[in-house]
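JOB MANIFEST
job_type = single_chain_structure
chain_count = 1
residues = 578
[input]
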Amino acid sequence: MKKPRVVVLGSGSSGLMATIKFAESGIPVTLVSALPSYAAHSSSLCHGLALPQNPREAGDSDALFLKDIITAADGLADQNSLKNLTDWSGRIYRLLTRLGIAFSTTQENRLDFRPAEGARVYRTLYAGFHTGRRLLYALDQVVRSFEEKGLVTRRDNLEFVSLIRSAEESVCGLTVMNKLNMDLEYIKADIVVAATGGFGQIFLNNTHPQVATGLAVSVLYQQGARLANMEFVQSQMGALHTLDGSLNVAPYALSEGGRFFIETGGKRWYFLEENFPKYRNWVTSDAVHRFLFDKYRDKAKLTGEYPLVYFDLSHRPRELFEGRLKNLREQVKKFTSHDIAHSPVPVSSAVTSTLGGLETDNYHMTNISGLFACGDAGHRYKGAYQPDNMVYLTSLYSGYWAATHALLYASGLNRGADSVPESVFDDELKRQHEANRTMLDLAGQEKPRLLFEELKHWMSDQATVVKDEAGLTKAADKILELKKRFERIKLADTGRFLNEELLFARRLWGALELAQAVVAASKARKESRGCHYRTDYPLRDDALFLKASSITYNSMGPVVEFKDIDQSVITPPHRAYC
């Protein structure tokens, strides 16, 4: 067969990495994205990069690094995959330095390693406050160089609509919709790599871009791709909220010596330092949420709210705020009008990561032949909790290896998309045109945006970190109600040009299906593990649930089962940070 047709969905760090791997192998790639790269979720993150090779940190090693990650994931991440990832951490660091990313250094011009979440060693590197933005720009420049050589065709402002499969049920293409003129078209493909990010927007307070409703993952799920570990939704204390969204400043601010406290009786109580003396403010955020819930649950029942948490950097030397803390200071001022150099800042919790995604095998392929997943669109490396310094590492590594394994898959193809009859593509395009017309013709009274706000409130209240059977049952009933009300929506805009309402309605339906999967998986996992805290099942249960959840789509409701995962490296340690 001639060179395969490849489509990468998503232009965040994982999608760009996959694109680079394909292009440097001489395979032409079509890069499809609803947003340009600079607007991807990766660019707004304030995380660092994990690197267990700090010469000044006695006792640190790849083995300890792996153990800390498995411990943080509460035993639920695939161990062999994580081992391969940790072995590659040094190569990824060297790749980024070759791309021109300058990581922060000390006065002695050595790499400035910072503390790692959930570990007691210094193994996190930052490239200033905007590490994610610099990483994306560097990768984007490489992709642009391949564009000039004709190996990459970039298609921005295209919304993924559906996957097209051949008679053999393997990938042969996809349909997309232009966000500007609403035109539908199909793109032939032998390989599709989903790097579309998470679905944080189905929760009220989150740090994700507005389009991160998980539409692509939801559509693929409804078309037969299985999901995994959808019950794990990671929130982090340290978010600043505005009308435009949330910014999580905690990782970088903590690396500069920030401290959390609660005011009690007119005094500052540094509750993490007192209750987690080994890890202090670097304990994992799910442990923070559990502690606050257990400490203040009775008071919350009476008042309906928890005490306000403050983040403090005002004790740091003044010169830092004109140096490496300058960007952070400006961002906080922009979001809150507070000056971190002189006063603490009130912060709250926000969803920063959705740890579930498309279920993949060791080769990053889903149960649909030719469909691969990486980054936050997949589930493989995250388990029940992912330390913030692992986000970029897993994103880049999974993007690289998803493309590598996709090339191996392509080498075994005897027939490609070109051999599929044109009628298969035309029929799918016709079906999507009809779906658009049906949605535009709906003449009910319900407003899609109000339905979405209801969904976000319910999911935030019942299906983030702290959950119980009663709340999850109510959330499941509410989602069914919202799905019925969706049939009675009316779009404010029924035009055929720049129709944001039509796009939003499609995203809403996708979000409802994903929300149903999250709640179903949360109900099925009757234990507490990582960022899944069932107050009615407060203990970890390895005998029954040291397994990944697997969710299959059914029109009557999600079907959840549990599958064994690789535990061949070490016995999952007991996870206790107190």
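[summary]
The longest helix spans residues 500-524.
The chain has a mean pLDDT of 89.
exit_status = 0
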